[in-house]
Specification:
By secondary structure, the chain is mainly α. Helix content is about 80%, strand content about 0%. Keywords: Cell membrane, Membrane, Transmembrane, Transmembrane helix, Zinc.
Amino acid sequence: MTGALLWGAVAGGALILGALVGLYIPIPRKLTGFIMAFGTGVLIGAASFELMGKVEVETGYSYVIFGFLIGAALFILLEMVIIKKGGKERKRSKEKSEGHSGMAIFIGSIMDSIPESVIIGVCLIKSNTVSWVIVLAIFISNIPEALSSSVGLRKDGYSRKKILFLWTIVFILTTLSSVFGFVVFKELNELYIYLVSGLAAGGIIAMVASTMMPEAFEEGGPIVGLLSALGLLCSYVLSSGIL
């Protein structure tokens, strides 16, 4: 449980970091695109090598596949709702955007971050150790999300103090969500863990394709293809235990 608390806090800490960058440190959009591209590769690797790639019982594959399809479909449905509310650019770092709603982006960020943190706890059950790939992937994806939302909230009139307070609440929720995933799913049949892993993998791939990849290419240009490949390679190395 302590490990789930610790690594949930590490991944959630990226939300605070992203918020601070968005509020106080202007960074080049091209650099943001590069970070997003690398994170895209890491996330794809996390879904492929960690969440879907480690199935120890034959019947587990059907649970993973079913979960994957449901996770992807569920993410897209939620994405459609968020878009209608003005939060379609929650993974983006643009300071000016038509239809930009800071609170909608913030709510969308919560919807992304809590399930992701639950997966950290679930992965601790599967392998009895932290998945560096999962933690790194969530950490990288959380930074631009909090950055974008913080910029939007400032444009909507929120003070820096209030914005940081909101992200602190989300940080606490995401940390506790990791513990929740560990405690609750520890008592369930292993097949349900495969189902949840598939759900997470499907949601991650759908999220990457619809939010992160378009932003990365738009901001960084063709070089992001190489950076994404390096991110995927990083996932492979960490998952294989080479280092």
